[in-house]
Amino acid sequence: AQAIERRAELVNQTDDFFERMKEMERLRITLWAEAVKQRAELVNTTDDLFNTLKKEERKRVELWAKAYKRLSQADTSENLNFYFDIIAGNKTIPVVITDQKDNIKTAANVDFDLRNVEVLEGERKRQFLQYEPIVSYDYGTISIIYYKESKIYVRLKNILDNLVQSFLSDVVSSSAAVPVIITDSSHTEVIAFGNLDSSIIENPALLRQKLNKMQADNQPIDIELVGHGKSYIFYENSALFTGLQDMIHYHISDFLEEVVTNSASVPVIVTDNTHINVVVAGGGIEKKDYNTPEKLQRMLRKMKAQNTPIEIDLPLQGKRYIYYENSFLLTQLRYAPIIQFLLVGLLMFAIYVLLNITRRSEQDQVWAGMAKETAHQLGTPVSSLLAWLELLRMEYSDQKLVSEVINDVKRLEIITERFSRIGSKPVLENVNLYQVINESVEYMKFRTSSKVHYIIKADDAVKELKIPLNKNLFQWVIENLLKNAVDAMNSVGVINIEMTDTGNSITTDIIDTGKGIPKSKVKMVFSPGYTTKRRGWGLGLSLSERIIKKYHRGRIYVKSTVVGKGTTFRIILKK
Fold first, then answer.
1. Is the Cα torsion angle 376, 382, 386, 387 positive or negative in sign?
2. 81 CB contacts (<8 Å, ≥6 apart)?
3. Residues whose CB falls within 8 Å of the CB of residue 389, separated by 6 or more in sequence, listed in order
């Protein structure tokens, strides 16, 4: 942009020089035009003098005719010396007096011999018809007085004609390299021309075209020419002037082309002072990109938002504005920090995810190790208890009590088995979901308060559905949710279990009438270690979420909760 501004200053300085030369040439042409006007005035003044002389000669002839008439009518006693002096004083004007039949009565200052010429006729008469004859009536006799220019007048007129022709030749030749055409008032008849090909003058169409061009360049000079009346001098700029003008145009075009070429990958548009017309464009911008006013203005606004347009003042063209936008490389460099930041952020996120996966993997291993160790530690006492219970059954009379104790011990055995399977991929089998849930509910009924009521709602179609399940692990989830519900209700209330077929999955809602969960704690209930119980470890819901999401590819979440009214947990399992 700075290089363009410096180049624009250089162009303006160079063009200032050309402009001064052009003004000098225009001044020379103006002086020539003024000289033509002054010379034309001189010729017209001379012509006026000749017209005055012409009128005076007419008056002299009329006076001579009156004197002649008076002599012919006077008597012998009258003094006629004055009239004789008038007639004798005519030494220059040719005069012929004839009768009605053009028979010559007398003549003066003529170039023929009266002894040989008796009748005024033919070419000789035509020479005397340049002016209207004077008719004289003398006592019924008609005399016709013919006259023509005097010899002095003819010589002076020839001088005037030569002066006019000299003026025209001088106008044409003194114009130097300036093409000139002198026409009549209708601009159709060429009186003289110079510095032009004659073929232009001979062709009416080319002549009209040339006159229009000359008139567009310079106002024609109007003059009064002897023998032609009002005339016009058309002229155009000289070859030097035109050459300087072409040089300026070339210089400007070269400058604009260099602006576009040197812009390299910088998109650039040069407009006129209206910001509507495009002078030149480059840097990857094609005409289709600005072939409508809307596209052009949209592109100019975009460029102006990035960089202030460069204003330059070019000779013969006026103000021009150079719009440009950032190059592709600069745009890339501008967005490089953002891209770098995003890449660093992405790398940090990947590291975080990797560390989180590693941490969770370590937690899984720890939980799996703890579960298996717990199962191992419980295995031996449970086996011993089963053996002692068999002995107790043989010796104790209350078999029902013994059976319940045996069921609890077997339950411990199942729990031990569950712990032992944590960390291992469980086997899923198609089982009846309703029956699995019902078994868990029946088991919980005998081990919770009679004030807790369990209600399972499912239509007949749902009761018959079988889905892939690991029975032991899923029952663990159900029993854990039921225990939490009983604790939330303080062993008094209703637990509703609603099963619904949604097409591709089975939805199970476990609804209690307990104390509810605060909104701020809802997202924490599945986190390991979170519990509201004094003796709880906070592992139940965490393990339940793992069993549903990881092993059964399902979902478990808190559907709704209202403090003081209850909570609804929802389990979604695919068919």
1. positive
2. none
3. 402, 405, 406, 409
